[in-house]
Design goal:
Blueprint lengths: L8 E7 L3 H13 L3 E4 L8 H4 L19 H5 L26 H15 L3 E2 L4 E6 L6 E5 L4 E9 L5 E2 L12 E2 L14 E5 L3 H10 L5 E5 L7 H4 L11 H7 L5 E3 L2 E7 L5 E9 L6 E9 L1 E4 L3 E2 L14 E2 L4 E2 L12 E3 L16 H20 L5 E5 L3 H17 L2 H4 L4 E7 L4 E9 H6 L1 H4 L4 E7 L30 E8 L2 E7 L20 H14 L13 H7 L5 H15 L8
Parallel strand pairs: 1-2, 1-6, 2-3, 6-19, 8-15, 9-10, 9-15, 10-11
Antiparallel strand pairs: 4-5, 5-6, 7-16, 12-13, 13-14, 17-18, 20-22, 21-22, 21-23, 23-24, 24-25
Helix pairs in contact: 1-4, 1-8, 9-13
Amino acid sequence: MDSRSGSSRHTYIIVGAGPAGLQLGYFLEKAGHDYLILESNERPASFFERYPRHKTLISINKRFNGYPETEFNLRHDWNSLLSDDESMRFTEYSQELFPSSEDLCRYMADFVERHSIKIRFETRVAKISRDADTGIFTLVDRASSAFSCERLVIATGAVKPNIPREIEGIEHALGYEDHDIDPTIYENKRVGIIGRGNSAFEVADHLAGSAAIVHLLVGEPIKHAWQTHYPGDLRAINNTILDMYQLKSLHAMVGFRPKKISKTEDGRLKVIMEEDYPHWDTPGTGTTTTYYDYIIRCTGWRFIDEELFDDSCRPECIKEGKYPQLSSSWESTVPDMFFIGTAMQARDRKAASGFIHGFRYNVRTLFNLMGERYHGVALPSKEFPLQNGEHLEELASFLIGELSTTSSLFQLFGFLCDVIVVSASGEAKIYFDLPKDYVLERAEFMDEEQVFLMTLEYGFHKYPKGVSTLDFIHPADASNNACSAYLHPVFRYYSRGEFVDEQHLGESLVVRYDECDYEENVQNMYKNNIKTIFNERFKLTDEEFSADAFTPEQRAEVFTPWSEEVVEEWRKKMKEQEDAQCQFVI
């Protein structure tokens, strides 16, 4: 709703009514705090009215997942915001696996109305200052209206294109943000696209059927999301151009680094580029000159507008001004100024902090941290007695349920964790969804004698570099959970701030631990593993718990060891595949 009445002084002001601003607004509204969202446009989530340019989101909208829990299903619903209203799920707005951005805009507008989120539209903030004595922020918009607050949250998202100024003549390139997307303009033309992310490949795929030749000037090898597990790397939905390249259908991806772009007399663009050849017999750097009819710049975004802040509150930046520098609780270098939304990837470029399905949980955690810091509200937690075998069963059952359904730890793997603090009196207290770095910095946790951090994490980094994740079609060694490659639970134990040990549960195809993937597996093996982790530390019972995937009787039925001859033959085959006649260096 549009809030234009009342005081201009608030406890919280959020700049930006995109998904992150709306998510924090929801929590602040629900808690009854004094807040206001300032939005430059006349509708929420207006960024998605224009982007992506071709309207198809790369965020998954999987409506049917075979399990009833809302939390589990949010793992595969990448567009919904968090709320207590079960009807406000994006899965009700589109049936497409990769939906239209127009549906997302419609959903966000309804979310605002349903939850009465306080927004002042058509209010573009022009300058922000901070009183050194009081710490009060003042925001002035382009109409010279002033607003003030004690705590400021910047939720402006992608604020401007990231333009590679080191390329001489870059002004001759069209921008992703404003190039004409009518494919007929590019018919039978040569098009060079600068960039190696999803926006570059999105444009290339759009032009693949009309342009004569499309060259993606990537500079260095691209990263595939299926290889890195980072949703911001190249997604399969955008990689049609790679098929055409590998099948020699004219379009190509090349390692060129543009150095200079100039316009010729006939209107074409002359591009001088460099390329490294470390794999040549005489390694070196080559120079290449070629011509295009169009160059399109698709080189990403900047997530902070430094010009918005005066000298009294200008936050420090990283990555050559692309991101704000943020603490482990997303606070900038200016006290009481926080950044949320896509800027949260300044702390996390491996999981999903830069995307709705990730930062919705970061925003909830930040709300909880601000509640504790500013309002004396304890962090969400749950306590269990831990003094005997019955208590151990109760704790292990709860943790199994948490690991089997949690979306926050699933989406923000290795970044968010649950913290289990075990007191000397035999009480286990679980704190939920805290940034791992924050926990390791916080004395209240690290001064404790017995602390466990529970995460979900991948384990591909434990295998040789360059091995394709698509080669992993078989499970990791059932006798060595530490070698699990796909997402699996990890427990790390700390004592007085010192790392002591870590233990892993095995992989699961659907990342659930309240059931097993196969009938032959021991049904309680995951729970037994958790029981063993805590029982070995606290000696709660004399009972021993088998975490084996099979009973001895089952193993004899379902597992046939290879003979030495078969093992040797397999190793010989692998060695032959590894041998290469030509050197290739990435």
